[in-house]
Amino acid sequence: MQTMISGGPIANSEGWAKIPFAGRLAHYWLPDEIEGYSAIHKGERVSFWKSRCGVEATTYKGVSMLERGNWPMCKRCGRLS
Ligand SMILES: [Zn+2]
C-alpha cells in the first residue's frame, strides 16, 4: 500500500486539500454556505467546509486542512471545476 504524504497544514481557504477524517481523497473545498464560514466552539475556531462533490467536513485546532500532497484527487470535484 502506498504511503500517503501530505505537505502539512495550509491556511483555510477555498481549494484542493485533504481534510483528516473526510475520506481518502483530496477534495475541492468551499466554505459551507449553510453552516456559515466558521464558529467559535469551546474557545477554538471551527470552520465548516463542503466539497464540490458534497462531502462535509470541519476543521479546528489540531485537525486542519492539509496540502494535497500525493493524495488522489476526487474525480467528481475535478469534473465540476
Ligand atoms: Zn470531491
Describe this entry's structure for a reader.
- This protein has 81 residues and is mainly beta.
- It has one domain.
- It has one helix and five strands.
- Strands 1, 2, 3, 4 and 5 form a five-stranded antiparallel β-sheet that branches.
- The protein starts with 14 loop residues before the first strand and ends with a helix.
- It binds zinc ion.
- Zinc ion (ZN) binds next to helix 1.
What best-fitting shape do the alpha-carbon axes yield? globular
Note the gap between the termini.
29 Å
Strand content: 25-35%
Number of helical segments with 4 or more residues = 1
Helix content: under 10%
Q: How does the major sheet shape up?
A: 5 strands, antiparallel
Q: Tell me the count of domains.
A: 1
Provide the structure class: mainly beta
Strand tally is 5
The SSE order reads EEEEEH
Average pLDDT for all residues: 79
What radius of gyration results from the CA coordinates?
Answer: 12 Å
Q: What hetero molecules are bound to the protein chains?
A: zinc ion
Low-confidence stretches: none
Topology (SSEs and partners):
Blueprint: E1 15-17, E2 27-31, E3 38-41, E4 44-51, E5 56-59, H1 75-80
Bound molecules: zinc ion.
Summary?
It contains one helix and five strands, in the order βββββα. It is mainly beta. It has one domain (15-76).
Descriptive keywords:
mainly beta, 30% strand, 81 residues, 5 strands, 1 helix, binds zinc ion, 7% helix
